[in-house]
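Issue 218. Parser rejects a valid record. Input:
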Amino acid sequence: MDCLLDMTDLRTAQLGPLDLRLQAGELVQITGASGSGKSLLLRALADLDPNQGQVRLQGQDRNGIAPTDWRRQVAYVPAETAWWAERVQEHFPSNWDRQQALDWLQRFSLPEEALDWEVERLSSGERQRLGLLRAFLNHPRVLLLDEPTANLDLENTRRIERAVRGYLAEEDAGALWVSHDTLQRNRLGGRILEIRSGRLVP
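Output the parser choked on:
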């Protein structure tokens, strides 16, 4: 497999030094105690919080990529996604593909009408699924998923797990997935890394 994301000596005020290599098609799980810095790691990789160290995407240094382009390619999806416009599709990228969006909606068990729903009417679970759809439509190379199923029941949780696995296979992308759910970790499989005392350990 090809190295997709290469993080060397990453440091924040609370974390580091951290090293990690993510391969194309790979899903790596991040775990750790509450407050250990799981979200901080994802936000640092997305360059949303101050950090030091080298991060490369397919060999290209982050410092050589415009921040907005970096965040499209290395997409941070928090448990509570931000919404600023009135309707769902107003948050999509300008070149979004409607048929592709409809295909993902079907996988997420959401109706076509969801594209035109008002954000105010969305449940927390709908916001979570539509926030992930919004990320998919940017075709990121890396997904940084911060408890993306925290507000979902088991059936919809499994739908999202399958959808993310499908996305990684179809786009040859990679993902870091933060989860507190032991059963989910068993279902997802793959490498599991723990943040302990500011370091990443197997």
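Fixed in the parser; the record now loads. The mean pLDDT is 95.
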